[in-house]
Amino acid sequence: MPKSPTERNALLGQRPFAVVVSCTDQPIPAWRLFGDDPGIRIVAAAGGVVDDLQTSRIEHACRVEGAAALVVLGHTGCEAVRQGVFQARRGVHTRLARAMGGLASGLPLEGGRMPRSVLDALIERNVERALQSLRDLSSIVAALELGGRLRLAAALYDEDRGEVEFLPTVSPHRWPAPDEETLA
């Protein structure tokens, strides 16, 4: 018997209506936050930093399988973001540190510690960064959004309240008009 919506999707051949990029250290699985719905495809990435394989999974779910929404879901107290910031400050060269580098510059970190309020503000900025990164790195995501076939959203799971809040996002629509080959 399948244990998660992703496993049910695979067995039933269902097509997702949404893709959620969630953090690997999120305390509650993303599919549980959205009502255990089998129409949600989950892509787990530390701090929302996706690699080429994860990006290709997102592109496939949106372009081929027809998912109409892409949500980047962060969460308060994210250890991946905290570690990425500290790695960037120490000059460690990881994908996570490179992604957090711009967020980490100029942060007042006292004795290697980061106040929770600073971390949570960084996490919100990181969710927005991750969403924009998907637009920038994937011409497929950008073209589908511009063509009206994909809606992008940023969200934050508040661990203390147990709620998901959707953040205001702006679709830049600075992309050239998609060609039929990209959308096909």
What secondary-structure arrangement, pairings included, does this model have?
Elements: H1 5-12, E1 18-22, H2 30-33, E2 40-44, H3 52-64, E3 69-75, H4 79-90, H5 95-104, H6 116-137, H7 139-146, E4 151-158, E5 163-167, H8 180-183
Parallel strand pairs: 1-2, 1-3, 3-4
Antiparallel strand pairs: 4-5
In terms of DSSP E residues, the strand content is 15-25%
Count of β-strands? 5
What is the alpha-carbon Rg in Å?
A: 17 Å
Along the chain, the helix and strand elements come as HEHEHEHHHHEEH
Fraction in helix: 40-55%
Distance between the termini: 35 Å
Outline the biggest β-sheet: 5 strands, mixed
* Overall shape: globular
The number of helices is 8
Structure classification:
alpha/beta
What does this structure look like?
With 184 residues, the chain is of the alpha/beta class. It contains eight helices and five strands. The chain has a five-stranded mixed β-sheet with strand order 2-1-3-4-5. Strand 1, helix 2 and strand 2 form a beta-alpha-beta unit. Helix 4 packs across helix 5 and helix 6 crosses helix 7. The longest helix is centred in the last third of the chain and has 22 residues.
